[in-house]
Amino acid sequence: MANISKVYLLNTPLEDDMKNTLYFANASAQQSYMQNNILKSYTNVSYQRDTSIFRCPAHIDTIRNCNYIMFQNTAYSNKWFYGFIKKMTYIDDGRTDIEFAIDPLQTFMFDITVKPSFVEREHTNDDTVGSNVLPENVELGDYVSTDGVSKWLWDKDSTYFAIAVSKKANGLEGVVYQPAGSKLPDGLYYFGVKNVDSIKTIAKAYDKSKAADAIYAVFVVPSYCFSESGFGNVSFDVGSGSLVSVPVNPAPNMSFTSDQNISVPSGMAGGYSPRNQKLKTFPYRYMQASNNSGEVTTYHYEDFTSSTMTFQLAYSLCTGGSARVYPQDYKGRANNWDEGINYGKLPVGSWQTDPYVNWLTQNGVNMAVDTALDLATIAGGVASGTGAGVVSGLSGIANTLTQVYEHKLEPPMTKGNICNGDVNYTNSMTCIHFNMMSIKPQYARIVDDFFDMFGYATHRVKTPNTAHRQNWWYTKTIDCNITGNVPNDYLNEIKQAYNSGITFWRNPSNFLNYSVSNGIV
């Protein structure tokens, strides 16, 4: 009989569902691997059809461990056909009928061209952080905070007091006043003091200057508003009604800016270090900024231009303070004001004025004149011997003394914000707090394993990636475009394999082993 066909029975890891297949760089490498796995050889058999049964001249028990077939009809072509052994049927001790189906992926691997197609997902050839951010349909669980840092912490140790007044007071010439510096008219002057006692002193000075109502507001301001150089406290001599010492109170800055840098964390909750860099992006981890007053903003690490995130605070002097923190070099904008977060308000204080001192100062001259007139009336009455003049003079003096006594009994008057308690300020939480958020380690491992097996969502029309990973890569398409000199039924099977999702394995010894390294090559 003419030697018209070679048939070899093999054992390989390949299965007919074609969810996984082997990748070979060329036909020689493919043939070499297959021949190294031959268990039975038949080199002098009749023409072998590609959709038929091979009548194997062997007992079924001697070939049961064979699951793959390769054959070549040497009289007509040198092409090798590869196929899955589907079923073995015992005929007699010298014959077993082997039913097989062609493996179109291996048989026509070097006869097809995969054209640009809609790739639903695949293993990427660029896994730098931020290069893959499409949403994934995976469970994330709850978030936990891995770390936190407070910036621009404004508490009693890092704040002073600003006093807003409508006019200057006598005796406070040494105080540096700052006229309103905003573009909105407010008609106020500002100066700063360092402690509460100084506020009391200023209030007394304004009482003495007949200008208690000129004090408009007392409020906390960040130390950024002042220079520490020469900054002192104000004291007041109650007896003389004058300032004992006037500090070099620097005029507050009407506005200022301040930068703070925050480093992007390297890992995730529980110290988990992901293999797939997509886990280092949102929504698997991110940074959350809170002003501790109800406003929260989310920032994505991958949208900053470097591993150091820079935020800038812009402040404008006003009652309660007006400040906003915003990211720099974020989402393509040097100063991303729109994605900033407002600073929580600083406390507005209260102060006391002394109605007695204020009244006495305002009426001191009039009372002196009235008293002098009353004394003159008494003297005139004595000289003339008329009792009416004496009585009238004494009555006027008594009335004056009564007014002094009544005003002296008036308690100090409190002005400003009476309800000036602030839980954030008193608990040192007037700041912007940045929380590093992450999914829990157990969820991170689940997602990481999923990405290991099936790559990332792609959703692009492109040529699928090939031979770009150390050990395996996954490809799933929709209506894949493939051309080649291949019978149409086999071509459709290949397309269906791509559309269903297929993993190519580079090293047969690592077939289906997802524990080995799979870096980009």
Strand content: 25-35%
Uncertain regions spanning at least 5 consecutive residues: 241-249, 404-411
Number of helices: 8
The value of Rg in angstroms is 45 Å
The profile of the biggest β sheet is:
6 strands, antiparallel
Return the structural class.
Answer: alpha+beta
- The percentage helix is 10-25%
Tell me the number of structural domains: 4
Shape: rod-shaped
Average pLDDT works out at 83
Order the strands across the largest sheet as they lie in space.
3-1-5-6-7-4
Number of strands: 30
Amino- and carboxy-terminal Cα gap:
50 Å
Describe this structure in words.
- The protein is of the alpha+beta class.
- It contains eight helices and 30 strands.
- The chain has helices at residues 27-35, 104-107, 196-208, 355-384, 387-408, 423-426, 441-454, 488-500, and strands at 5-10, 20-22, 38-45, 53-56, 68-72, 81-92, 95-102, 112-114, 117-122, 143-151, 159-165, 178-179, 189-193, 215-222, 235-237, 242-245, 255-263, 285-290, 296-299, 308-316, 322-330, 333-335, 341-342, 350-353, 413-416, 432-439, 456-462, 472-478, 482-484, 502-505.
- The protein has a six-stranded antiparallel sheet.
- Helix 4 (355-384) runs antiparallel to helix 5 (387-408).
- The two termini are 50 Å apart.
- The relative contact order is 0.16.
Q: Would you summarize the structure shown here?
A:
The chain has 521 residues and is an alpha+beta fold. The chain has 8 helices and 30 strands.
